[in-house]
Amino acid sequence: MQRYFLKLAYRGTAYHGWQIQENAHTVQAEMNEKISTLCGEPVNVMGCGRTDAGVHARNFYLHFDLTKVLNFAPQDFVFKLNRFLPEDIAVLGAWKMPSEAHARFDAVRRTYRYYISLQKEPFIRELAMPFAGLLDVHAMRKASRYLMDYEDFTSFSKLHSQTVTNICRIVEAGWKQKDNQLVFTITADRFLRNMVRAIVGTLLEIGRGKLKPEAMKDIIEAKDRGKAGFSAPAQGLFLEEVRYPLEWEKMFNANSISG
């Protein structure tokens, strides 16, 4: 049995998230079908995480196993698979990996970005949240810094999920504004379902003056989803980066099957 890793980018608009669901179009189902067809045997891919319906990914890793070693030339596998896949999914690289390597459990950090358009922008309608009105970005930045003081994010977790623990270690959280675009970046070792969208929704309520920045501390300490704000729309959220051990990342610098 040989294990392979793939690096993807996808636009999530047309998909009901990453994970396979009955009677729903998902990225995982698309990858299973196309890789199985190309390789001539059934595969079941495992992703580095689970993006929700409508969420996008610039860098997403998966692994799958084959009973045989691929006989494609290094540059051909990515090219052939991209020919099979729809226009909104792109394979960026492929690598032969040790059998114990795991796309989800071996990831050490993940970075998400949430994009907000402060004016009407028809060309990015499905790639950013439109927002009309004034925001106190200074207050939102102040509130964001409190996130790095805590580890239990139950208040931002989707209710009735099967998550074993709500502990996450956030190492980066902040806002940047350029012209009419506002971007929230957050990096952690792991994220809970709906966590980033719930955090962004809460920060927007702070930016609109409905809550003080210090309210972020009370919300986190309450460990109650009902205390936090609304979930921001999916179309503004991107999985931007997934980090792995350093020796893996040196290998990932080459966009071809290697090993």
Q: Which labels suit this protein?
A:
single chain, 259 residues, alpha+beta, Alpha-Beta Plaits, 9-stranded mixed β-sheet, 6 helices, 25% strand, globular
Task: Describe the model.
The protein has 259 residues and is of the alpha+beta class. The protein folds into 2 domains: 2-105 and 245-252, Pseudouridine synthase I, catalytic domain, N-terminal subdomain (Alpha-Beta Plaits); 109-240, Pseudouridine synthase I, catalytic domain, C-terminal subdomain (Alpha-Beta Plaits), CATH 3.30.70.660. Helix content is 24%, strand content 25%. A hairpin with a 2-residue loop joins β7 and β8. It starts with a strand and ends in a 7-residue tail after the last helix. It has helices spanning 27-39, 74-84, 137-146, 195-207, 215-222, 246-252, and strands at 2-10, 46-47, 56-66, 89-97, 109-117, 129-130, 170-178, 181-188, 237-243. The chain has 6 helices and 9 strands; from the N terminus they run βαββαβββαββααβα.
Number of domains: 2
User: In the CATH hierarchy, what is the architecture of the largest domain at level 2?
Assistant: 2-Layer Sandwich
What percentage of residues falls in helices of 4 or more residues? 10-25%
CATH class of the largest domain: Alpha Beta
Question: Structural class, judged by helices and strands?
Answer: alpha+beta
List the total number of helices: 6
Major beta sheet summary: 9 strands, mixed
Mean pLDDT: 93
Unreliable stretches (pLDDT < 50, length at least 5) are none
- Here the CATH topology of the largest domain equals Alpha-Beta Plaits
Shape field: globular
Strand portion: 25-35%
Give the ordered list of helices and strands: EHEEHEEEHEEHHEH
